Automatic annotation (TrEMBL):
Transmembrane segments: 44-65, 77-100, 106-123, 135-157, 181-203, 215-237, 243-267, 306-332, 352-371
Residues of the ABC transmembrane type-1 domain: 177-371
PROSITE patterns for this protein: ABC_TM1 (PS50928)
Subcellular location: Cell membrane; Membrane
Signal peptide: none
Record has Transmembrane as a keyword: yes
The name this protein goes by in its record: Osmoprotectant transport system permease protein
Topological type in the membrane: Multi-pass membrane protein
Length: 384
């Protein structure tokens, strides 16, 4: 029995109420650049804004309940319902906000993003602190995630400015998304292939640890754009040589971005590889050797499986770092979702910026959550 109020629930429920009452939820603009009529939550969403206030009120009341289990069940269900209401109501209400005979752009404003953030934090806090109830957690997660997919698939968001930007850039979006995934996952894989052997070498030969880790740490100190500039000259030269020219290596484009992201991923993976092998119980290794296992078998059958959860945690850090860093590829002609971000900044189009930013945020959150779950599963497997 937990008798203390849940501070996180109180804080973000209060923030959600403030956001609902005082921040703009949408803006009806005559075009993608000019300012337009700002709409508060009640003017834009009508009765649905009242439901959001009720949801946050329920969370505040539940946060002071003595029974922690009931507290988090109620707050989680309320937050999940609030997310569904908000995501499903935005599209239809955007259509109603457009005056008859006109075609302004309905741009989502900060109030909706902040309110959604508060609801997701409340939901995440409740799910994390609610022990057991796996089925309930899956239902809450589905209720919070599926409405957005349904709204997009059904065309409910078609009146939103960001969807109009998507329709204009649709032919480019898939290619830039593919490039962003290639830069992020490809560079992380390349970094893992390079860094893991070096991390293991630093473990086997402690005298080499400084010589291995210091150059990798040095790359982390170089600003991304500066590293792009450093790589332009050698890559420009390599681009004149047969095989490199054939795969599109040049001073600008995907190559400098890919190499820079790979270099940034080396340190977290190598450092975790070293830490992972150091954490392997020496007694287990000695027992395996005493049973007649050779060094190679000990490495592949004993040390690597036990060290891999820590190594994988380093790969997770490198991947999240790469997904965000790949944005800057748009500045050197490397493509990716960063192209929309910088084009939107140049054209003063916030919706075009969001067309690049929102998928990046979703990729980061999804990738981090999946890999975090994989790390936990590996740790449990290793413990067993």
């Amino acid at each position: 029995m937990n008798r203390k109020p849940e501070g996180t629930l109180l804080l973000f429920a209060a923030a959600g109420i403030i956001s609902t009452f005082f921040l703009d939820f949408a803006e009806a603009k005559p075009n993608r650049i000019l300012s337009g009529l700002k709409l508060g939550s009640f003017k834009f969403l009508g009765i649905y804004a009242g439901i959001l206030v009720l949801v946050f009120a329920v969370v505040i009341v539940s946060s002071v309940l003595r029974d922690g289990k009931i507290r988090h069940m109620i707050s989680g269900m309320a937050a999940s319902a609030g997310i569904a209401v908000l995501l499903l109501s935005v599209g239809p209400m955007a259509g109603l906000a457009i005056p008859a005979g006109t075609s302004p752009r309905i741009t989502i404003s900060s109030g909706i993003y902040i309110t959604l953030l508060c609801l997701y934090i409340i939901l995440g806090t409740s799910m994390r602190r609610l022990k057991g109830h796996r089925t309930l957690k899956l239902v809450l997660a589905a209720v919070a995630a599926l409405p957005a997919l349904f709204a997009v698939a059904s065309g409910s968001y078609s009146d939103l400015s960001i969807m109009k930007e998507y329709q204009v850039k649709k032919s480019q979006f898939a290619g830039n998304l593919e490039t962003h995934l290639f830069l992020s996952f490809g560079s992380t894989l390349a970094a893992a292939v390079i860094a893991m052997p070096f991390g293991y070498l630093a473990y086997k030969k402690p005298t080499l640890e400084g010589k291995i880790m210091t150059p990798m740490a040095f790359f982390e100190t170089i600003p991304t754009l500066s590293l792009f500039g450093i790589l332009m000259v050698p890559l420009g030269y390599l681009g004149t040589i047969g095989i490199f020219k054939a795969i599109g290596v040049s001073g600008i484009g995907w190559a400098p971005a890919f190499i820079a992201l790979t270099l940034y991923g080396l340190l977290p993976i190598a450092r975790n590889t070293l830490a992972g092998f150091k954490n392997v119980d020496a007694g287990v290794v000695e027992a395996a050797e005493g049973m007649g296992m050779g060094k190679g078998r000990v490495l592949w059958r004993i040390e690597l499986p036990l060290a891999f959860p820590v190594i994988f945690a380093g790969i997770r850090v490198a991947l999240v770092q790469a997904i965000g860093g790949a944005v800057l590829a748009g500045l050197v002609g490397g493509g990716g979702l960063g192209s929309f971000v910088f084009l939107g900044l140049a054209e003063a189009s916030s919706d075009l910026v969001l067309l690049g930013v929102i998928p990046i945020v979703l990729m980061t959150l999804t990738g981090d959550s999946l890999m975090k779950a994989a790390v936990k599963r590996l740790e449990i497997g290793g413990a067993v």
